[in-house]
UniProtKB/TrEMBL annotation:
SUPFAM superfamilies: P-loop containing nucleoside triphosphate hydrolases. Pfam families: DNA_pol3_delta2. This is DNA polymerase III subunit delta. InterPro entries: P-loop_NTPase.
């Protein structure tokens, strides 16, 4: 993901939902975000739009900036549970 994609995500999350309610964005392979994209994402993590949840998925946290990691709640999925990812939204309610 590059900075342009993060900026597009920021713009999309600023839009209001027609039906109200919460919004969520999932950023897969977050450890591969380049430095510029991580810094742009940092601003989004610091001041997320109202009723918005951001989910960063990464194989490991070491590829993320310390400042990004410090603003995230870490949830570790054991390798055996990786196939159960489709059940994650229901499990988190």
């Amino acid at each position: 993901m590059r900075i342009g994609q993060v900026r597009a995500l920021q713009a999309a999350l600023r839009l209001r939902s027609h039906q109200g309610g919460r919004r969520a964005a999932v950023i897969a392979d977050a450890e591969w975000l380049n430095l510029e994209a991580q810094n742009a994402l940092l601003r989004l993590l610091e001041e997320p739009p109202e009723d918005t949840t951001l989910i960063l998925v990464a194989a490991g946290a070491s590829g993320l900036l310390a400042t990004v990691r410090s603003r995230c709640q870490r949830v570790v999925w054991p390798p055996a549970a990786a196939g159960l990812a489709e059940d994650a939204p229901e499990a988190m309610r």
